[in-house]
């Protein structure tokens, strides 16, 4: 099924703005994920930043992008790159770090597979994906590249290895796009540093919420794992393929090297791509050692063996599919096993259902899971206090908050009003900002 087709876009203005810069969110305004935003100034230079989808059931997609020659992708999470293959309709150049480009194939293939199995429509096919893989222009952090009359460069965003903030110099001023950021160092990525700018577009996922101390959460996770293992159980740790799973491996390898940890799912393939791009990993040797230390599950017999492990780290992070459900279906019969969730469980996800009702769908059956369930905050997003501090240190005259539900965005806005002009945009509406408000 075709969701939308090139050229049928209606709400994007035809003419460039007279001055300043126009932002037009196709998705990602007053919502988390599903990001896509068109920037354009009076020179007619036009750039798309991110083009993702929200992997809900059914998925949500951003609005159709108008014709655009260049797109920059902040990182390889599906809510930021999921729709990129559709841009081959316009032969758009896709810009990103080398690591983001390297991981894109795994993410796109998985999206294609899932939409096929679940019967959800997708606006691109395998041929588009192949073409998109040939459309990457990769950049090192700090290296300038041209987009029309603008100069752009990427900076580390924390969040996950290879994740980038985008600094854009137009003839009128500087705009910084945060992408998903974390200002703290994590086991595999260095934290984001503020960049002086006139306009800051800031993600606000954690607006109004602060994280517990990261180190204490890591210690709490390790001691809970050791407790489960000492009573003869297996700890199942569902984790995202890009970022969280590798963080968990690093933590366990560092703190409890005697454990037998099995690593399954898409994360194993993503990690191999990471190791091909060591420049983007804070301690590539440490990551490689942790990966080799873990027992990678590659087939059915490995999977059966893993049932006797101390720890299984696998996808999906929110128990919506992947090997995690296969394991859960077997581990649920022994009360000494436990499920250790490592982050936010979205509304409607299997993980959220498990937390709320003690049951979740496994292969179509509502299944009761009578196991210990614990939750840890190993988020890779900056929290409220850090986001506000980051905005202040970037000293923009204009702040745009996106990638946040409305309440979270308002909380950040309320804290910063008076210090900078705050805009909380809507999807499918154009706003024009001046660089010197
Ligand atoms: Zn992300």
Describe the structure concisely.
Helix content is 29%, strand content 22%.
CATH superfamily of the largest domain: Ribonuclease Z/Hydroxyacylglutathione hydrolase-like
- Specify the oligomeric state: single chain
Measured by DSSP, the beta-strand proportion falls in 15-25%
| CATH topology-level name of the largest domain | Metallo-beta-lactamase, Chain A
Distance between the termini: 45 Å
Write the CATH architecture name of the largest domain.
4-Layer Sandwich
Average pLDDT, to the nearest integer?
Answer: 95
Question: Which structural category fits the helices and strands?
Answer: alpha/beta
Number of domains: 2
For the biggest β-sheet, the strand order reads 6-5-4-3-2-1-22
Overall number of strands: 22
Q: Please outline the major beta sheet.
A: 7 strands, mixed
Cα shape = globular
Number of helices: 12
The hetero molecules present are: zinc ion
CATH class of the largest domain: Alpha Beta
Radius of gyration: 21 Å
- Uncertain runs with pLDDT below 50, 5 residues or more? none
Helix content: 25-40%
Question: What attributes characterize this protein structure?
Answer:
437 residues, alpha/beta, Metallo-beta-lactamase, Chain A, Rossmann fold, seven-stranded mixed β-sheet, 12 helices, 22 strands, 29% helix, globular, binds zinc ion
Task: Walk me through what this model shows.
This protein has 437 residues and is α/β, with parallel strands linked by helices. The chain folds into 2 domains: 21-209 and 380-433, Metallo-beta-lactamase, Chain A; 214-375, 3-Layer(aba) Sandwich (Rossmann fold), CATH 3.40.50. Helices cover 29% and strands 22% of the residues. The strands form 4 sheets. It has a 7-stranded mixed β-sheet with strand order 6-5-4-3-2-1-22. Strands 7-8-9-10-11-20-21 form a 7-stranded mixed β-sheet, with helices on one face. Helix 11 crosses helix 12. The longest helix is centred in the first third of the chain and has 21 residues, at 98-118. The model has no long low-confidence stretch (mean pLDDT 95). The protein binds zinc ion.
